[in-house]
């Protein structure tokens, strides 16, 4: 490996560092900090009929909204009876508690073993209803329904799409010989293991429609790129050439993967059909080119290269061609990921021996450091572009963390289950 890249912590040509602690049934703790961001006071009233259900819908809705750092939950104790219908709402009571928004609802049997979940969202100051929805679901779907409700509320109050119903993927390292590729809800709950191996699994990447995951597997004692169909559980090796096969990144149409291959010598960027086939070489430098990422419009590929003497970010046309250097501050900038609108790149920057998540505004070249950890790594944008999921090492243990695009809201999720590698935020659900 080129000496310029040896300092990248736990990096194997495009597979970024280990981190984050999470488990399928582990108790999770989410710490949220904000800096200067206004929080909307919102009252999420316990739903009528939810006390006997396997999941409190109102608690999940409140936790989702609170986790964004944009909302402050208003205490609902002391108001009796708690409203579940519009006729029971006393807007002056909620205004006296400084609530600007109010959520009420109820859960009732639908007669076929399922439940009807109804909720309403009100603007307290205007004393008007903003949203009213009803869902008929099984008791096991209550948590997913709560995420859907939180998505509606978030969009009504912010104008942006909510991402509470999305998924995240990551690799749990149980020990030196046990690795699991897991998929969980965006809040870390309901983790499901979709692959277990005695060899490392790295760099999971979601297909644009969320139906497949590409990742790097070492099952044959060398890195190869695999695509797994999540619904069918089937896998296909799409890159298993001589040397290194790593760093898969999907094209926006889901037809191709950009990958880093060393089959012709030094590691370079190639494009290969997502079903496998003959790779097309896109870079032709005398140094290491790796960690590709397609722009959302499919016109560009950003990547990491040390062709200028140190690892920096570059951009080239998606079909290959002259590369433009993007980063100039510092001697170590790696792992680019485009924001969903294509205006920013999130990446890892090393400053004074500390690895932090930073963002680059492509139009202006303005660079902003978003985190303040010592070993932050593997950034991945939420599909609405508002938060960036990443890895954070704290006290020698890995944790999942997230930061807003302006760095003002930060989340940290901790658990006692195991170390998680390479978190990746999935796309918006299609249904």
Q: How would you explain this protein's 3D organization?
A:
It is a single chain. This protein has a five-stranded antiparallel β-sheet, with no helix packed on it. A five-stranded antiparallel β-sheet has the order 2-30-29-28-27, with no helix packed on it. A five-stranded mixed β-sheet has the order 4-3-5-6-7, covered by helices on one side. It starts with 17 loop residues before the first strand and ends in a 6-residue tail after the last strand. It has 431 residues and is mainly beta. Helices cover 8% and strands 45% of the residues. Helix 1 crosses helix 3 (142-158). The longest helix has 17 residues, at 142-158.
Global outline: globular
CATH top level of the largest domain? Mainly Beta
Total helical segments: 3
Number of strands: 31
How do the strands line up in the largest sheet? Answer: 1-31-8-9-10
Total domains: 2
Give the low-pLDDT segments.
1-27
CA gyration radius, whole angstroms? 23 Å
Give the DSSP E fraction (strand runs of 2 or more residues): 35-45%
- The CATH superfamily label of the largest domain reads TolB, C-terminal domain
Question: Considering DSSP H and I runs of 4 or more, what fraction of the residues is helical?
Answer: under 10%
CATH topology of the largest domain: Neuraminidase
Largest sheet: 5 strands, antiparallel
CATH architecture grouping of the largest domain:
6 Propeller
